[in-house]
Amino acid sequence: MLLKESQHKLVKLPAWRRRALLIALLLGFLALLGRGFYLQTLHKEYLIKKGEAFSRRKVVLMPHRGKIYDRNFKPLAISLPVESLWTNPTDVQLNAAQLKQMASLLAMKPNALQQKLAQKNKEFVFIKRRVAPDVAKRVMAMKIPGVFSQKEYKRFYPAADVAAHIVGFTGIDDTGVEGMELFQNAVLAGYSGKRDFVRDRKGHVVEDLVAVQLPHDGQDLVLSIDRTVQYIVHRELNRAMEKQKAKAAAAVVLDAKTGEVLAMVNLPTYNPNNPIHITGKTRNSSIVNMFEPGSTMKPITAAAAMEFGPYTPETKIQTAPGYLKIGTATIHDAHPNQVLTVAQVIQKSSNVGSAKMALDLNKEQVWNTYLQLGFGATTKIGFPGEAAGRVRHYKTWRPIEQATMSYGHGISVTLLQLARAYTVFANEGELMPVTLTKLSEAPVGRQVFSAKVANAVKDMLELVVQPGGTALKAQVTGYRVAGKTGTAHKLGAGGYEHDKYVGSFVGMVPASNPRLIMAVMIDEPSNGEYYGGTVAAPVFSAVMNDVLRMLAVPQDGVSVPLTSPESLVPEAMADVKEAM
Fold this sequence. Notes:
By secondary structure, the protein is an alpha+beta fold. It has 2 domains: 58-79 and 153-222, Alpha-Beta Complex (Penicillin-binding protein 2a (Domain 2)); 227-578, DD-peptidase/beta-lactamase superfamily (Beta-lactamase, 3-Layer(aba) Sandwich), CATH 3.40.710.10. β6 and β7 (205-208) form a beta hairpin.
């Protein structure tokens, strides 16, 4: 009885207490309803983001970047599979021992790794990119919560520094940074895909929220370059640069019939597989840098004189006493001569003879000839930063400028432009377009000179490589060679620098039916020699001795050099002295 009476007293509460308790419960319930309403309506975006941060992932699926091949389908750039490790720092869980082990596997300092994992305000942080697959596998085997890997690609360049200035390289995101990798990036890169999915707390995929968009791989690119020819040119140019203690050097080899670039080498170079400390080395100087071509312009002057003036290869020109005064300026020859034919002017590289021919021509005709040959405009070869060169309008020319431009003084060109201009002498007056991609059919050129004039100049260029010429060191055993040397003072900030030179040579072989054209430029040789015939012509000879045989080009000449190279005749330099 006492127990029942006690229980009755506990259950029966005063009315005011029952009301207070009821009101408190109602207020609490209303508060929960209000909080739920607030979170589900007014503040739902925040909750959704928080939920997705833990469970939803959007992953970019990287495409396979297209390969770059040479003309014989030897690889110049390929993509190798790698792994990139990433994390959501809020999810990652590892102890000190695991931190040290992971840092060791990734060749990172523990402090640096800890700093990446401490970025709790971020939902996605790369731990390390482009990790070797076996290393990534060992890291993932540690089974650290919150650490994930995704497939990426790393670019590899089999030709390394030999073809660096043509191929270029890509950045960390596999996007082109230099060279053809940059110019053809849209073709090579392809299109990325994506995957939007939900994962559980262990990182396993639970559900794809939308259909997976697969990546679209990039297209392959086949260049006109021959990797073996490129290597030979690089080897010989490097030897010449070291021998002459030059600041820089460049060379271009063209297929004379198609304008395809078979080799393009610039020194100094860099390794695109490890592109660090490369400032100033990535410029493709054959296309980007301009220089005064010197006497390599004289064949063009002779061609214009025969095309538009009263000249033939046998026309005689008085070059005595070895200099020519034009106003207050004086043009000089390296060695005084007497009467020379047009052919001898080219053979002996007479500035006076070239100037007299140019002064007999209409300025506008000469200017138009330069433009028709592609000077003063880009070649449209499709390369980043290509220079157009400099050819001033003929209306601004003074007589001295018309004269000096005839031997490459006062006009600026790129090495590629110069090599291309010589295609007119290899193709009966037809200028060929140039390309860095392999052609499936022969291109259509542009007629600049008549076939008669172009062939006559080609015959003159053969004399340059024979006794009495300036390029005996360009001879190639078993082949007839046609070419021209050039030597010019460098143009600096304060004018022409009389102790700095550019030596050059442009040649074609075999001269009977040119198959290859090569232009060589040696910048600031400082070992006592600077004439184009002594510093640049030997590079042509060394390269062609190997390349012609490699390509099985039939011989058309004698089997031994015509004469000793020591009897070389130096050409006149592209300069002019103003009277004081």
